Structures are given as C-alpha cells and as structure tokens.
Amino acid sequence: MLHRPRRRTLLALIASLALLATACGGRTMDSGAGAGTTLTVYSASGLGAWLGSQFDRFTADTGVKVELVEGGSGEVVSRLEQERADPRADLVITLPPFIQKAAQSGLLQPSDADVTGITSQLVGPAAIYVPIVDNALCFIANPGADPAPASWDDLLSPRFEGKLQYSTPGQAGDGTAMLLLLQHLMGKPRALEYLTALHANDIGPAPSTSQLQPKVNSGELLIANGDVQMNLAAINNDGFDFSIFFPAMPDGSRTTISIPYVAGVTAGSPAPDAAKDLLAFLLSDDVQKTVGPEAFGIPVLDSVAREDAIDPGTPSPASLLDGVEVWEPNWTAVLGDFDYDLAAYRRATGE
C-alpha cells in the first residue's frame, strides 16, 4: 500500500496562490494551476488501467498528480476508517453497499458533482456518492471446465471440488453481490443452504475478486465469480483465456445484479477541491465516452449512448447481458440487513 504524509498547510497555500493567480471562482482549474498537488485515490480493483489513463489526462489538464491504491471493495473503506484521525485518501471508488457504509460512517463529504443525466438510484444525498461506471456480476470458466457449467446447480458438481473459488462476501464487492443475488433468487434460507453446499467445492476465502482471474486463466481454478467490466478488460487487455457466463435457475432464466463502481470525496480529504474536480472530470462527457471502448464498462450518463464502442466481434457488456435480467437492489435496505446477513453467511459456511 502507498502512503504519503499530510500536507494541509502546503495545500492550503497552493490553493490560495492558485486562486489569486487565476482570479477564478468555483473549482475550475487552468492547466498547471494544480502543480504541486497530489491526490490519492483508494479504489476497488478492476478499473486500474482505465483510471490510470484518465488520471494521466487529468494531470495534463490541471497539473494535479494522482496516486492510485487498489484493494478489495470492503478493504478500501476499512482503510478509510482506520485512517479517520489521519486521512490519506482524497477520493474513494468502491462498490455498493460499501460506499453507502462509508457515507453512513461519516467518511464522505458532499461532492458538489453535477449529476444531471444520471438516473441511477446510486446518486447519494447531496451527491455524497456518485456512480462512475456501471457493471454487473458474472462468473468465469477455464476452457478445461468441459462441459462448461450453465446453471447454479452445475456449480455444485463434484468435478469442481478444489477447482472453484468465489470472493468473500463482506470483503469483496462481487462476493457480496453474489450473496445478495442468491438471496434474491432463492430467498435467504435457501441461499444459505446453497452456499453451504457450494462450500464443498470452494477452496477458501478471497478478499478481492481480481486475484481469482489469473487462477482461472492458468487452470489452477476452473470456476470463479467476477464482474463483466473486470473480466472483459482481462480478456482484451491481458489476453486471459476464460469464458464469461451467468448461471441459470432451474427454469432456464438468468439473472444478474447491477454493481456499479461508485465514487465519493472523503470527509478528511487533504485536497477536497482538487478531489471534487477529479470526480467531475470522471463524470464528464469526454471521459464517459471512453468507458465502453477503454474500460469495458457501461457509462452512467444518459447523454452518452449505452452502445458498446468496441471492435466488432469482441464480446461487450451489451452482448454478454443480452437475455439476462439485471436486478438493481435497494442498497439502503441492503445496508440495513448487511451485518445480520454476513453473520448468518459466516455461521453457515464457517468462514
């Protein structure tokens, strides 16, 4: 993990000088006006390559440098909590319900973001958190999983014993989403029964979903959970060899769960104005137009066509989700039962 010292006094001086020099209000920055400022972003893993390229553009436009620290969805919020008395991060990007938990815990501040054209229910009060890339849960299979699994029941097959792993609910956003989706599809008691049965094949806890991709690519694992954006990026950017699928229920229906990447400015940000500028930049039309072709995700702005601008013949979010129902939970309600549901899961599986 990266660390950097607090520099509140220096940042305040830089901000004051920049304001005097440019004689402008608000958070508008001229190129180079933020020279000397460095932002730290804590992000759930999966968007690293795309974020890196966008941060480079932001630095070129503003002079503000950006350091990226990636981890599990729950891990990045836990780190904010641990550093509450000495904040290091300026912006956090994670999945629900962890972003709601961060807001509920007083770890975020209003972002002042213009959320016009974002219809998602995941825009928090006073834009305290805002989705930046839409996404959905999926599973991945190594070519050695032959025949490839197609249903939730298939994942219970003894042929996957010791060759299947899913990221841990409560720590990883995708693992949490998997638990919630099973509750939605089967009801809470049946979902726990299913996960108890699946535990016979699962090789053990995994705090981050991203660490499962290389294992499936190499054949160490045959099956793992994932998400559409991260897995498509691994296939297209890293040449990973696995297929993406959505397990079916006994009636053949396939359902997934929407799990967008959601961002918020931290309550103790050492450079809050620059952090708000960065979030506004990520929500701009120009950046949102790169979400499909470069991040392999779905843009959140209604003004940006939700058509995949990816080379013809390349799997895209839209093509993968064709025929799959996408469920959008009430994340506020999810958060209300979150601790109880996690405790029940841990009792049922022994994790």
What is the annotated CATH architecture of the largest domain? 3-Layer(aba) Sandwich
Number of domains: 2
Apparent shape: globular
CATH H-tier superfamily of the largest domain:
Periplasmic binding protein-like II
Using the coordinates above, name the CATH class of the largest domain.
Alpha Beta
Structural class: alpha/beta
N- and C-termini, Cα separation: 25 Å
Question: What is the helix content?
Answer: 25-40%
What is the number of strand segments?
12
Key terms:
alpha/beta; D-Maltodextrin-Binding Protein, domain 2; 2 domains; 12 strands; 38% helix; 15% strand; globular; disordered N terminus
Summarize the structure.
This protein has helices spanning 8-22, 48-62, 73-82, 98-104, 173-186, 188-198, 212-218, 228-238, 272-282, 285-288, 291-295, 317-321, 331-349, and strands at 38-44, 65-71, 91-94, 108-109, 130-133, 137-141, 164-165, 223-227, 243-245, 255-257, 261-266, 325-327.
Written overview of the protein:
The protein has helices spanning 8-22, 48-62, 73-82, 98-104, 173-186, 188-198, 212-218, 228-238, 272-282, 285-288, 291-295, 317-321, 331-349; strands at 38-44, 65-71, 91-94, 108-109, 130-133, 137-141, 164-165, 223-227, 243-245, 255-257, 261-266, 325-327. It has 13 helices and twelve strands. α6 (188-198) crosses α13. The chain is of the alpha/beta class. α2 links the parallel β1 and β2. It folds into two domains: 8-134 and 260-295, D-Maltodextrin-Binding Protein, domain 2, CATH 3.40.190; 137-257 and 312-349, Periplasmic binding protein-like II (D-Maltodextrin-Binding Protein, domain 2), CATH 3.40.190. The model is unreliable at 1-33 (pLDDT under 50). It starts with 7 loop residues before the first helix and ends with a helix. 38% of the residues lie in helices and 15% in strands. The strands form three sheets. Strands 1, 2, 3, 4, 5 and 11 form a six-stranded mixed beta sheet that branches. A four-stranded mixed beta sheet has the order 7-8-6-9. It has a two-stranded parallel sheet with strand order 10-12.
